[in-house]
């Protein structure tokens, strides 16, 4: 009887060999985005975070377009038509650099472009999607309002008919890329329910005001959109949009990217803490030799690998067409909470050094406070999961 093969020691960077199950194409996409992030994003993002902006957003958009990540999961119109896992891997590698940078890509591809792709006319798709995929045009997604976050159905933005035109009035808040967008997808209540409209930048009555003094997602551009008597032609309406389900379906696509992105942020914090613990010496030994530090590393290791497994399983379900929105809620709820735990623990491993931008951990920790809130707060996803397993809605 032959001796059983001895298993290789686990890789500290992929302890459960999650990435070992990827296809060659998926590994190529992972490596391409990871290399881009290491070369173009990681060396600069701390400065961008410190400055509270992206100095050259159009240049970055063009770089993302050249990389092929804008709308990469969409079919046609210059989009790559990649699978869900491949798109998720791109989100993971981008958020390992910074949540704000992954958000730039998600808002462009999974919100603005996806809305046009799902609900737009053929002319709207042909006019906007190829340029957006190439990073030559930037889009934003106007759903959230100052008084309407978790309950978007209570929005106050209104669109009324005036002859053959539409006239929009209202305010949207916390809009990523809002002040740099060439086109805004704006959701408004009409006599026929909630509908989507394409509002080009420069339309009279439409202004975008940058939100300053943020303490989270600082390497990102956030704006308030104000619409005062904005007059649009009839063909500005997204003809396929019908009711609140239309924008919510786009949010689910962006939320799926967060499932993977949070896993990337967690991995980056764990790896930073492991590297630091192996090189930082106290009492004559690296702090990695101390029991309390090893326990922290073990806790982080479990969260990081369980997050990776969760993201991959949801991605595989999505690629098969078997992914329910509640499963995406599960992933967002679980992975963001895990990433927050990892970031806090990693910050403690770094000690006083952990509060500086010389290390990524507090930057990720602060970003994750926003990630826990947008695309559905932690509480909303908890209630979604509660309804899924009991059949009882606790929302109202």
Automatic annotation (TrEMBL):
Its EC number is 1.3.8.6. Residues 242-389 form the Acyl-CoA dehydrogenase/oxidase C-terminal domain. Residues 140-230 form the Acyl-CoA oxidase/dehydrogenase middle domain. Pathway: Amino-acid metabolism; tryptophan metabolism; Amino-acid metabolism; lysine degradation. PROSITE patterns: ACYL_COA_DH_1. Signal peptide: none annotated. Transmembrane segments: none annotated. It catalyses: glutaryl-CoA + oxidized [electron-transfer flavoprotein] + 2 H(+) = (2E)-butenoyl-CoA + reduced [electron-transfer flavoprotein] + CO2. Its cofactor is FAD. Pfam families: Acyl-CoA_dh_1 (PF00441), Acyl-CoA_dh_M (PF02770), Acyl-CoA_dh_N (PF02771). It comes from the Bacteria. The keyword Flavoprotein applies. The keyword S-adenosyl-L-methionine does not apply. Belongs to the acyl-CoA dehydrogenase family. This is glutaryl-CoA dehydrogenase (ETF). The lineage of its organism: Bacteria, Bacillati, Actinomycetota, Actinomycetes, Streptosporangiales.
